[in-house]
Amino acid sequence: MIFGKFTERAQLVLVEAQKESQYFKHGYIGTEHVLLGVLREGGYAKQLLYSNGVTVEKVRKVIEDYLGFGDIDISVGEMLLNPKTKRLFDDSLIKARIYDHNCINPEHILLALIDDTEGVAYTIFTNLKLNLNLIKNEISNYLYEKRLD
């Protein structure tokens, strides 16, 4: 599975996404939960989102309004990714390889979230009126600099 290509930071995104899915009782991990995982990880991707006005509280509010709460409990060990989230992680690996990185970081995940126009996370970005091109450029510059290190 692709999870072997996750850095510790990206694994933390996934753990936090699972916690958010459990909080909402959705029974699956969707792109919206992954976005919350990125916000909880604490690295550059989170800082960039926060500097653009995206917070855990705002994202949770949009999810509540858009999807509401479910009634499905998943256990800590269960990781039920919906098809869009599986594709998102495949796309994250492609993004990593573009920058000559062997493993997925939260910044690659955020780039994939931005490019996935069909995911709930993209709906959240639209709802929050983000300048996605600006954010992509900032991430790209950051990842390019990391490649030079």
TrEMBL record:
Residues of the Clp R domain: 3-149
InterPro entries per UniProt: Clp_N_dom_sf, Clp_R_N, CLPT1/2
Gene Ontology biological process: proteolysis
Top-level taxon of origin: Bacteria
Keywords linked to the UniProt accession: ATP-binding, Hydrolase, Nucleotide-binding, Protease, Repeat
GO MF annotation list: ATP binding; peptidase activity
Protein name: ATP-dependent Clp protease ATP-binding subunit ClpC
Native species: Clostridium perfringens
